[in-house]
Amino acid sequence: MSQSNPLAAAYDIGQSMWLDYIQKSLLDGELQTMIKEDKVMGLTSNPAIFEQAIANTSEYDSDIHAIVGKDPSVSSLELFNQLAIPDIQAAADAFAGTYEDTDGVDGMVSLEVTPDLAHDAAGTIAMGVELHQRVNRPNLMIKVPGTKAGVEAFEALTAKGINVNVTLLFSISRYREIAQAYIRGLEKRHADGHSVARIASVASFFVSRVDVSVDKALSDNGSDAASALKGRIAIANAKVAYGHFVNLFGSEQFGKLKAQGARPQRLLWASTGVKNPDYSDVLYVEELIGPDTVNTLPPKTMDAFKDHGVAESRLTRHLDQAHKDLSALADLGVPLNEITDQLEADGISSFVDAFDRLLSVLAEKRAAVAS
């Protein structure tokens, strides 16, 4: 296997590399080059990414001018939708060939429901359906948070045949809930007489943020045993989640759906940019490459992995050690479940803040247009 481009080599092992980034100028040709040369297989977006793109560039100013000029009373949310949806459509069109070549497995582009709906299942379902209809691309994924309300919304959207990316997953228990909700959604869809073929879904399991919080707790503990676990728990957490993925989607229950054309909901590794400068900048890429998975990479991490990463299948190695590491953490009295619950809450809060900043930027830019 050639390592001349580790991004492409990872795909040969069974992992799809997606880009965690979108901006209008990216869609003018750079994205198409990445698809062709680097085997980038999909794209994810979130409120923070759009906030950065719209706030920090002038690329959207003429569109804002045109939209507000046409409808001066347009709401800030609708203004955002009219900016974001064309970008998402263009990205989806760029990946149309990938989508067809992989028979609908890859080539997916994610657009998130607004973060204020994180605890509103009905609102999430309604917005998911609306965005699905407005984008009108078969390779769109609606992104919903993996909260308790999100589990309910995800199951309903799956039953409607809508591709969903469930995000902000930190705990193994919540991941299992999501995987089971996917299976229930497909079962309901099949029972209602609809096809379950070519429905794609991913469970976005966050990685680096776990180590940031756990490493702090380990530092506070101060023991040699605690120090030995630093930088290990996020990967152990992900590996154990993958073990559940293998079991759930290799089960007899899912086998019945698979016979009807259903596909497993792949695990997607998110938050894979390294936040601790003491760790390798490709740690969370190299250690989590394995079959039937996705890794969504911010541009800086993607560039680093392309430059000096090594693509080999490590995800399925040392699963016993991953379980031991999690047990050792519990023995030290570090409450991983409490940490992951807090990370979920913080993640939602972060996206709410980013979306609020985005709406403020849009208000400023539309005021500049009006003046």
Question: Any chance you could write out the topology, listing elements then pairs?
Answer:
Layout (H helix, E strand, L loop, with lengths): L5 H8 L1 E6 L9 H9 L1 E5 L2 H9 L5 H10 L5 H19 L1 H6 L6 E5 L8 H15 L4 E6 L2 H12 L4 E6 L2 H20 L9 E6 L1 H14 L2 H5 L4 H17 L2 H7 L7 E5 L12 H4 L6 E5 L1 H10 L10 H13 L4 H35 L1
Parallel strand pairs: 1-2, 1-8, 2-3, 3-4, 4-5, 5-6, 6-7, 7-8
Helix pairs in contact: 3-17, 4-17, 5-17, 7-8, 8-9, 9-12, 10-17, 12-16
Could you list some keywords that capture this structure?
TIM Barrel; 371 residues; alpha/beta; 57% helix; eight-stranded parallel β-barrel; 12% strand
Strand proportion, as a percent range, falls in 5-15%
Helix content: 55-70%
Report the total helices: 17
Q: Oligomeric status of the shown chains?
A: single chain
- Order of strands across the biggest sheet? 1-2-3-4-5-6-7-8
